[in-house]
Design brief:
alpha/beta, 2 domains, Rossmann fold, 9 helices, Quinone Oxidoreductase, Chain A, domain 1, 7-stranded mixed beta sheet
Length: about 325
């Protein structure tokens, strides 16, 4: 079968022939319709991600919209390495084939589910804990995932959304979606005073951090509190991405003076069952336009071009099946 093939760590995928996947019990063959080329896909394929097997050659891709032998469109994933979703066919687990809503655009579903769920899951968890989200801070609001996080927070009733980012055009879109925006400087740094001003004296119920590094440290400073009394706030700080740096120093005084907990959101830290439960709900939000995601489709045969395009900021690149 034809597939995108990464031959070694750091290599750009090539379009070529790859062995047909074996189908074991509980799995079945489905055909590619569209697969999102997410940053995590690039990271795993390069060997940098904690989820990488470190073995090549491989077919990249984590999730996809696929067509079953009966002709149904489903969202699926968890394809066993070295196979991925950027191939003509894939062996898909029967337990993870969620039907698309009627009339849903497969390209937008494929492009939006991964970045959208990265914030939807912690936001819905947090809302269940506190009933009302109040103020939400998003570090990295100008990327695809961050832009969808702004929309998700609004859909879930957040009273105030503060979005930190660098790209001026994307910041305008975040502002248009209802965020108070805080621009990053050219070196991706941001001062704590700007974040504090965006909070307007209100402690956030949740911080969604797609950046880490210096912006996280500035946020820690902005959240600082100089009182001995009990903290009335309850802040959940969720570490999702690290595009601004793999490390960030957390002040000891912050952890002792505030009711704040830091946790991560990733494939190894969440419940797969809860994610699967939310798949049809979030697909409906994309299908009915409640949340939007800009996409750029590329045929599978143009995988090298798609790979290069995905390294740039902007719309989410989606690899689609070759025209019949």
């Amino acid at each position: 079968m034809k597939a995108a093939i990464v031959s070694e760590a750091g290599a750009v995928p090539e379009y070529g022939d790859f062995p047909e996947p074996a189908v074991r019990e509980g799995y079945g063959l489905v055909e590619l319709v569209a697969s999102g080329l997410h940053p995590v896909v690039r990271s795993i394929a390069s060997g940098r991600h904690y989820g990488s097997t470190g073995a090549w050659p491989l077919v990249p891709g984590l999730d996809a919209v696929a067509r079953t032998p009966d002709g149904d469109l489903v969202f699926t994933g968890f394809i066993e390495p070295p196979y991925g979703t950027m191939a003509e066919r894939m062996a898909s687990p029967a337990a993870l084939r969620v039907p698309l809503p009627p009339g849903a655009d497969p390209v937008r579903i494929a492009g939006g589910m991964n970045p959208g769920l990265s914030s939807w899951m912690p936001l819905t968890t947090r809302k269940a804990e506190v009933a009302e989200l109040g103020t939400v801070v998003i570090l990295g609001a100008t990327g695809t995932a961050g832009g969808m996080a702004v929309q998700n927070a609004r859909v879930l009733g957040a009273r105030r959304v503060a979005g930190v980012g660098r790209n001026p055009e994307a910041l305008e879109r975040a502002a248009g979606a209802g965020a108070v925006v805080v621009p990053l400087r050219g070196n991706r740094d941001v001062d704590a005073a700007s974040i504090a001003a965006a909070l307007a004296g209100d402690a956030p119920s949740i911080v969604l951090d797609f950046l880490w590094g210096a912006p996280a440290e500035a946020t820690f400073q902005a959240l600082g509190r100089r009182r001995i009394s009990e903290d009335a706030a309850d802040i959940a700080y969720i570490q999702i991405g690290a595009t601004a740096g793999a490390e960030a120093a957390v002040p000891a005084s912050l952890l002792r003076s505030r009711r704040l907990r830091i946790s991560g959101s990733g494939a190894g830290s969440g419940s797969i069952a809860k994610i699967v439960e939310q798949l049809p709900i979030y697909m409906r939000l994309i299908a009915d336009g409640s949340v939007t995601v800009p996409t750029s489709p590329y045929p599978l045969s143009r995988i090298a071009e798609a790979w290069a395009a995905s390294a740039q900021s902007g719309s989410r690149v989606v690899v689609i099946a070759e025209p019949a």
